[in-house]
């Protein structure tokens, strides 16, 4: 027997999670709308009540698992109503009063709220920046290390393997927020993490039309605790969202490749501008994140960040864009950008822009960005 070559990302994405072919059945079975399933006699496993399990999730969970941990039969994926539901499920199923958790201090903007809640439950929270692997310095005695790389919105990258080894040596578990990278950009479990956790709302599904989250884990006991938390809290995805997500996964490689190439093209165009400061994109060879990103990532994501001189300039730039929506979130097929400071949370300057490259033609997108920069340079009263 000859070993067949491993399948490429595009092939894996289009086939991910599909059930065995059944004559006269669709390739991807439609959403199963059910609260309960026929269940005569003793419950002996299988679908019973739809807060616990739903066949539409099963297909999606297999699909995400095949992308996050290809070939790992021991990996299990659980889907959630949102990325925050997935994040909370890991944190709150693992941590107890008296435990120590290490979070990034430059991560997703809801993490400070999570931190408050953890503290209210008697958990000690330490924070450190993503860049420079600074979380290493506060690991002693920790039960769980939470990594977000690349970080949102600053786009710093840390060494997942190095941090995971250091955490494991101290008996701590490691979770990586894989939202920005997607499983086609980086595979945290292969880099040593215990949990890969993400929002599927962003590039994973890519159309800006649903919220979703997931956790992938190879340890049966840890997975059981997360599953139990999902049952208790009930933060489950609807079957329609799960099905739409699965349908969208088929184009993940196409979207990611186009969007990442567009992000690089935008970053390269911005680099030549004197009015753009602190440009960050891990795919730029001279970016501070590039070296470690190229060691652990296979794609660098669709988000570019940069700073314009003032708040007013940032607002005029966003107004002047025609092909880019002023909207929060990222990862969708339509480019979006926002002045991140408007939320008040992230520690970024007033003119800081988070730009998410969509799947437009690169020339159109770059031209729109450069035109909006020129037009916004001149204040019109
Ligand atoms: C959006 C986001 C989340 C939260 O996901 P939701 O689906 O909005 O709940 C978590 N982490 C990162 C890095 C994100 O960008």
TrEMBL record:
Cofactors named for this entry: pyridoxal 5'-phosphate
Segments for region (Disordered): 1-21
GO cellular component: cytoplasm
N6-(pyridoxal phosphate)lysine modifications at: 202
Coiled-coil residue spans: none
One Gene Ontology term from the biological process aspect of the record: cysteine biosynthetic process via cystathionine
EC annotation from Swiss-Prot or TrEMBL: 4.4.1.1
Keywords for the protein's UniProt record, in alphabetical order: Lyase, Pyridoxal phosphate
CDD domains: CGS_like
InterPro entries, per database record: Cys/Met-Metab_PyrdxlP-dep_enz, PyrdxlP-dep_Trfase, PyrdxlP-dep_Trfase_major, PyrdxlP-dep_Trfase_small
Family designation: Belongs to the trans-sulfuration enzymes family.
Protein name per Swiss-Prot or TrEMBL: Cystathionine gamma-lyase
């Amino acid at each position: 027997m000859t070993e067949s070559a491993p399948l490429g990302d595009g092939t894996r994405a289009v086939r991910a999670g599909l059930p065995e072919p059944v004559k006269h059945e669709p390739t991807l079975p439609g959403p199963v709308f059910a609260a309960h399933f026929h269940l005569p006699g003793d419950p002996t496993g299988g679908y019973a009540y739809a807060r616990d399990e739903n066949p539409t999730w099963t297909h999606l969970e297999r699909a995400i698992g095949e992308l996050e941990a290809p070939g790992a039969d021991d990996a299990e994926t659980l889907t959630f109503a949102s990325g925050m539901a997935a994040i909370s499920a890991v944190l709150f199923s693992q941590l107890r009063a008296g435990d120590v958790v290490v979070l990034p201090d430059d991560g997703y903007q809801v993490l400070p709220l999570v931190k408050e809640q953890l503290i209210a439950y008697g958990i000690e929270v330490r924070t450190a920046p993503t860049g420079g692997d600074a979380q290493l310095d506060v690991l002693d005695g920790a039960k769980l290390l939470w990594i977000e790389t690349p970080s949102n919105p600053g786009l710093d990258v840390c060494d997942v393997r190095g941090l995971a080894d250091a955490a494991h040596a101290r008996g701590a578990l490691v979770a990586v927020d894989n939202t920005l990278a997607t499983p086609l950009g980086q595979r945290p479990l292969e880099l040593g993490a215990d949990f890969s956790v993400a929002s599927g709302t962003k590039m994973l599904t890519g159309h800006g039309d649903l919220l979703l989250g997931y956790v992938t884990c190879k340890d049966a006991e840890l997975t059981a605790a997360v599953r139990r938390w999902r049952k208790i809290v009930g933060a489950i995805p609807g079957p329609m969202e799960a099905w739409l997500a699965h349908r969208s996964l088929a184009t993940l490689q196409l979207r990611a490749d186009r969007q990442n190439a567009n992000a690089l093209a935008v970053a390269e165009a911005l680099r030549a501008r004197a009015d753009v400061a602190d440009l960050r994109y891990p795919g730029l060879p001279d970016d501070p994140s590039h070296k470690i990103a190229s060691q652990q990532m296979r794609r660098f994501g669709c988000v570019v960040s940069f700073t314009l001189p003032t708040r007013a300039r940032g607002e005029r730039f966003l107004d002047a864009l025609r092909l880019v929506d002023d909207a929060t979130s990222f990862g969708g097929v339509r480019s979006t950008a926002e002045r991140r400071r408007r939320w008040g949370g992230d520690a970024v300057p007033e003119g800081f822009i988070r730009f998410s490259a969509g799947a437009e033609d690169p020339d159109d997108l770059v031209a729109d960005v450069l035109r909006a920069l020129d037009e916004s340079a001149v204040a019109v009263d």
